[in-house]
Protein backbone atom coordinates (compact mmCIF):
# COMPACT_ATOMS: atom_id res chain seq x y z
CA UNK A 1 0.00 0.00 0.00
CA UNK A 2 1.16 3.50 -0.78
CA UNK A 3 0.08 5.89 1.93
CA UNK A 4 0.92 9.50 2.65
CA UNK A 5 0.49 10.58 6.26
CA UNK A 6 0.02 14.29 6.95
CA UNK A 7 -0.66 16.52 9.90
CA UNK A 8 0.82 19.54 11.66
CA UNK A 9 4.10 19.13 13.54
CA UNK A 10 3.37 17.33 16.80
CA UNK A 11 0.23 15.60 15.52
CA UNK A 12 1.89 12.26 16.24
CA UNK A 13 2.16 11.29 12.61
CA UNK A 14 5.68 9.88 13.02
CA UNK A 15 4.53 7.54 15.80
CA UNK A 16 1.47 6.43 13.84
CA UNK A 17 3.50 6.03 10.65
CA UNK A 18 6.02 3.75 12.41
CA UNK A 19 3.22 1.54 13.69
CA UNK A 20 1.51 1.44 10.36
CA UNK A 21 4.77 0.56 8.67
CA UNK A 22 5.21 -2.42 11.04
CA UNK A 23 1.59 -3.45 10.52
CA UNK A 24 1.59 -3.26 6.74
CA UNK A 25 5.23 -4.37 6.37
CA UNK A 26 6.20 -1.50 4.11
CA UNK A 27 8.97 1.05 4.81
CA UNK A 28 8.35 4.22 6.78
CA UNK A 29 9.90 7.07 4.83
CA UNK A 30 10.17 10.18 6.97
CA UNK A 31 11.79 13.03 5.09
CA UNK A 32 12.49 14.96 8.32
CA UNK A 33 14.42 11.94 9.71
CA UNK A 34 16.33 11.54 6.45
CA UNK A 35 17.38 15.19 6.50
CA UNK A 36 18.34 15.13 10.19
CA UNK A 37 20.48 12.08 9.47
CA UNK A 38 22.18 13.95 6.62
CA UNK A 39 22.83 16.95 8.88
CA UNK A 40 24.23 14.69 11.59
CA UNK A 41 26.54 12.95 9.13
CA UNK A 42 27.63 16.26 7.62
CA UNK A 43 26.89 15.16 4.04
CA UNK A 44 26.55 17.63 1.18
CA UNK A 45 22.77 17.34 1.46
CA UNK A 46 23.00 17.95 5.20
CA UNK A 47 24.99 21.14 4.68
CA UNK A 48 22.43 22.33 2.14
CA UNK A 49 19.37 21.81 4.33
CA UNK A 50 20.67 22.68 7.82
CA UNK A 51 19.92 26.41 7.52
CA UNK A 52 16.25 25.80 6.64
CA UNK A 53 15.69 23.12 9.26
CA UNK A 54 17.10 25.13 12.14
CA UNK A 55 14.67 27.93 11.32
CA UNK A 56 11.62 25.72 10.81
CA UNK A 57 11.49 26.71 7.14
CA UNK A 58 10.75 24.38 4.27
CA UNK A 59 13.71 23.03 2.31
CA UNK A 60 13.42 24.00 -1.39
CA UNK A 61 11.16 21.75 -3.44
CA UNK A 62 13.80 20.66 -5.95
CA UNK A 63 16.05 19.35 -3.16
CA UNK A 64 13.19 17.43 -1.51
CA UNK A 65 11.88 16.02 -4.76
CA UNK A 66 15.32 14.65 -5.66
CA UNK A 67 15.66 13.06 -2.19
CA UNK A 68 12.24 11.39 -2.39
CA UNK A 69 12.64 10.30 -6.01
CA UNK A 70 15.84 8.47 -5.11
CA UNK A 71 14.37 6.87 -1.99
CA UNK A 72 11.21 5.64 -3.75
CA UNK A 73 13.31 3.99 -6.45
CA UNK A 74 14.83 1.59 -3.85
CA UNK A 75 13.64 -2.03 -4.05
CA UNK A 76 12.09 -2.00 -0.56
CA UNK A 77 9.45 0.46 -1.81
CA UNK A 78 8.18 -1.83 -4.54
CA UNK A 79 5.32 -3.17 -2.38
CA UNK A 80 4.45 0.23 -0.92
CA UNK A 81 5.48 2.79 1.67
CA UNK A 82 4.28 5.13 4.36
CA UNK A 83 5.44 8.58 3.32
CA UNK A 84 5.70 10.93 6.28
CA UNK A 85 6.57 14.62 5.83
CA UNK A 86 6.29 14.68 2.05
CA UNK A 87 4.61 16.19 0.07
CA UNK A 88 4.39 19.52 1.90
CA UNK A 89 3.75 21.80 -1.08
CA UNK A 90 1.69 21.53 -4.27
CA UNK A 91 4.82 21.21 -6.48
CA UNK A 92 5.93 18.31 -4.25
CA UNK A 93 2.50 16.66 -4.55
CA UNK A 94 2.62 17.01 -8.32
CA UNK A 95 6.15 15.61 -8.39
CA UNK A 96 5.02 12.61 -6.30
CA UNK A 97 2.30 11.93 -8.87
CA UNK A 98 4.87 11.97 -11.64
CA UNK A 99 7.30 9.72 -9.76
CA UNK A 100 4.55 7.16 -9.08
CA UNK A 101 3.25 7.35 -12.63
CA UNK A 102 6.74 6.56 -13.90
CA UNK A 103 6.66 3.46 -11.68
CA UNK A 104 3.16 2.52 -12.87
CA UNK A 105 1.91 2.98 -9.30
CA UNK A 106 -0.56 5.22 -7.49
CA UNK A 107 -1.34 6.39 -4.00
CA UNK A 108 -3.92 4.39 -2.05
CA UNK A 109 -4.78 7.14 0.39
CA UNK A 110 -3.67 10.21 2.29
CA UNK A 111 -4.25 10.24 6.03
CA UNK A 112 -4.54 13.54 7.82
CA UNK A 113 -3.93 13.38 11.57
CA UNK A 114 -5.93 16.29 12.91
CA UNK A 115 -4.96 17.96 16.23
CA UNK A 116 -5.85 21.47 17.52
CA UNK A 117 -2.99 23.95 17.85
CA UNK A 118 -3.00 24.35 21.67
CA UNK A 119 -2.64 20.60 22.13
CA UNK A 120 0.21 20.55 19.61
CA UNK A 121 2.25 23.11 21.51
CA UNK A 122 1.89 21.15 24.76
CA UNK A 123 2.83 17.94 23.03
CA UNK A 124 5.89 19.23 21.27
CA UNK A 125 7.44 20.99 24.22
CA UNK A 126 7.48 17.63 26.06
CA UNK A 127 8.69 15.61 23.09
CA UNK A 128 12.08 13.90 23.30
CA UNK A 129 13.76 11.97 20.51
CA UNK A 130 16.49 9.33 20.51
CA UNK A 131 19.78 10.60 19.10
CA UNK A 132 20.57 7.19 17.70
CA UNK A 133 17.35 5.67 16.29
CA UNK A 134 15.02 8.73 16.20
CA UNK A 135 12.31 6.99 18.28
CA UNK A 136 10.00 9.63 19.73
CA UNK A 137 8.76 9.85 23.33
CA UNK A 138 6.49 12.19 25.24
CA UNK A 139 7.48 12.88 28.84
CA UNK A 140 3.82 12.78 29.95
CA UNK A 141 1.96 10.44 27.58
CA UNK A 142 4.65 8.06 26.37
CA UNK A 143 7.65 8.36 28.71
CA UNK A 144 10.72 6.13 28.33
CA UNK A 145 11.10 3.40 30.97
CA UNK A 146 14.42 4.92 32.05
CA UNK A 147 14.70 8.72 32.16
CA UNK A 148 16.68 10.16 29.28
CA UNK A 149 17.25 6.74 27.61
CA UNK A 150 15.60 5.17 24.56
CA UNK A 151 13.63 1.97 25.31
CA UNK A 152 14.37 0.61 21.89
CA UNK A 153 18.15 1.08 21.57
CA UNK A 154 19.38 2.68 24.82
CA UNK A 155 20.39 5.89 22.99
CA UNK A 156 20.34 9.32 24.62
CA UNK A 157 17.07 11.29 24.41
CA UNK A 158 17.20 14.99 23.49
CA UNK A 159 14.96 17.88 22.49
CA UNK A 160 15.20 18.64 18.80
CA UNK A 161 16.29 22.19 17.93
CA UNK A 162 13.09 22.59 15.90
CA UNK A 163 10.91 21.43 18.82
CA UNK A 164 11.71 24.62 20.76
CA UNK A 165 8.54 26.71 21.19
CA UNK A 166 9.38 29.61 18.88
CA UNK A 167 10.37 27.28 16.06
CA UNK A 168 7.29 25.12 16.66
CA UNK A 169 5.01 28.13 16.22
CA UNK A 170 6.75 28.99 12.95
CA UNK A 171 6.41 25.37 11.75
CA UNK A 172 2.67 25.40 12.51
CA UNK A 173 2.30 28.65 10.55
CA UNK A 174 4.24 27.15 7.63
CA UNK A 175 1.99 24.08 7.78
CA UNK A 176 -1.16 26.18 7.65
CA UNK A 177 0.09 28.33 4.80
CA UNK A 178 1.96 25.88 2.60
CA UNK A 179 0.79 22.39 3.47
CA UNK A 180 -2.95 22.82 3.95
CA UNK A 181 -3.39 23.44 0.20
CA UNK A 182 -1.91 19.95 -0.28
CA UNK A 183 -4.74 18.51 1.85
CA UNK A 184 -7.21 20.27 -0.40
CA UNK A 185 -5.38 18.89 -3.45
CA UNK A 186 -5.87 15.32 -2.18
CA UNK A 187 -9.40 15.99 -0.94
CA UNK A 188 -10.40 16.96 -4.46
CA UNK A 189 -8.94 13.71 -5.74
CA UNK A 190 -10.94 11.67 -3.22
CA UNK A 191 -7.82 10.37 -1.47
CA UNK A 192 -7.99 12.24 1.83
CA UNK A 193 -9.05 10.52 5.08
CA UNK A 194 -9.15 12.67 8.19
CA UNK A 195 -8.34 11.01 11.51
CA UNK A 196 -8.93 12.61 14.92
CA UNK A 197 -5.44 12.72 16.46
CA UNK A 198 -6.51 13.59 20.01
CA UNK A 199 -6.25 10.64 22.41
CA UNK A 200 -3.80 7.93 23.33
CA UNK A 201 -1.45 6.46 20.75
CA UNK A 202 -3.53 3.25 20.74
CA UNK A 203 -6.81 5.11 20.28
CA UNK A 204 -5.44 7.12 17.38
CA UNK A 205 -3.93 4.02 15.81
CA UNK A 206 -7.32 2.24 15.90
CA UNK A 207 -8.79 5.22 14.06
CA UNK A 208 -5.95 5.11 11.54
CA UNK A 209 -6.66 1.44 10.81
CA UNK A 210 -10.37 2.17 10.54
CA UNK A 211 -9.67 4.97 8.06
CA UNK A 212 -7.50 2.65 6.00
CA UNK A 213 -10.06 -0.12 6.03
CA UNK A 214 -12.81 2.25 5.04
CA UNK A 215 -10.87 4.34 2.61
CA UNK A 216 -7.86 2.59 1.17
CA UNK A 217 -8.77 -1.07 0.87
CA UNK A 218 -11.14 -2.85 -1.43
CA UNK A 219 -10.98 -0.41 -4.29
CA UNK A 220 -11.81 -3.29 -6.63
CA UNK A 221 -8.32 -3.48 -8.09
CA UNK A 222 -6.05 -6.47 -8.40
CA UNK A 223 -3.81 -5.90 -5.38
CA UNK A 224 -3.57 -8.76 -2.91
CA UNK A 225 -5.78 -8.14 0.13
CA UNK A 226 -3.81 -7.15 3.22
CA UNK A 227 -4.40 -8.39 6.70
CA UNK A 228 -5.01 -5.86 9.43
CA UNK A 229 -4.84 -7.85 12.60
CA UNK A 230 -6.09 -5.90 15.62
CA UNK A 231 -4.63 -8.36 18.13
CA UNK A 232 -1.20 -7.81 16.62
CA UNK A 233 -1.67 -4.05 16.89
CA UNK A 234 -2.29 -4.20 20.57
CA UNK A 235 0.93 -6.16 21.02
CA UNK A 236 2.97 -3.66 18.98
CA UNK A 237 5.10 -1.41 21.22
CA UNK A 238 4.65 2.36 20.83
P1 LIG B 1 9.65 17.00 10.14
O1 LIG B 1 10.45 16.12 11.04
O2 LIG B 1 8.87 16.23 9.11
O3 LIG B 1 8.80 17.99 10.88
O4 LIG B 1 10.72 17.86 9.29
C1 LIG B 1 11.67 18.69 9.92
C2 LIG B 1 12.16 19.76 8.95
O5 LIG B 1 12.73 19.15 7.79
C3 LIG B 1 11.08 20.68 8.41
O6 LIG B 1 10.79 21.74 9.31
C4 LIG B 1 11.74 21.17 7.13
O7 LIG B 1 12.75 22.13 7.37
C5 LIG B 1 12.43 19.91 6.63
N1 LIG B 1 11.56 19.09 5.74
C6 LIG B 1 11.18 17.80 5.94
N2 LIG B 1 10.39 17.37 4.93
C7 LIG B 1 10.26 18.41 4.08
C8 LIG B 1 9.55 18.61 2.86
N3 LIG B 1 8.80 17.65 2.31
N4 LIG B 1 9.65 19.84 2.26
C9 LIG B 1 10.40 20.82 2.78
N5 LIG B 1 11.07 20.71 3.94
C10 LIG B 1 11.02 19.51 4.59
Please render the helix and strand layout as text.
Layout: E1 2-6, H1 13-24, E2 28-30, H2 31-41, H3 44-54, H4 61-72, E3 81-84, H5 90-102, E4 109-114, H6 117-125, E5 127-130, E6 136-138, E7 157-158, H7 165-188, E8 192-196, H8 201-215, H9 230-235
Parallel strand pairs: 1-3, 1-4, 2-3, 4-8
Antiparallel strand pairs: 5-6, 5-7
Helix pairs in contact: 1-8, 2-3, 4-5, 6-7
The structure holds adenosine monophosphate (AMP).
Adenosine monophosphate binds next to α2 and α3.
Low-confidence stretches: 217-238
Order of helices and strands: EHEHHHEHEHEEEHEHH
Q: Structural class of the secondary elements? A: alpha/beta
Percent range for helical residues? 40-55%
Mean pLDDT: 87
Strand order of the largest sheet: 2-3-1-4-8
Shape by Cα distribution: globular
Bound molecules: adenosine monophosphate
CATH architecture of one domain: 3-Layer(aba) Sandwich
Radius of gyration: 17 Å
How many H/I helices?
A: 9
Question: What is the straight-line distance between the termini?
Answer: 21 Å
The total of beta strands comes to 8
CATH superfamily of one domain: P-loop containing nucleotide triphosphate hydrolases
Give the biggest beta sheet. Answer: 5 strands, parallel
CATH fold-type name of one domain: Rossmann fold
The percentage of residues in β strands lies in: 5-15%
At the first level of CATH, what is the class of one domain?
Alpha Beta
Amino acid sequence: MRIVIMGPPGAGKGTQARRLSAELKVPHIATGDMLREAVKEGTELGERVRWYMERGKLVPDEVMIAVVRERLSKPDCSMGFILDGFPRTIPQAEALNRILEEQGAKLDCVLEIDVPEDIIVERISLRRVCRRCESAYHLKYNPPKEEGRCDRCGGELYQREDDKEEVVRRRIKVYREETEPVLEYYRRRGLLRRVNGVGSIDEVFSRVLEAIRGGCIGGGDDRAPIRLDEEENRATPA
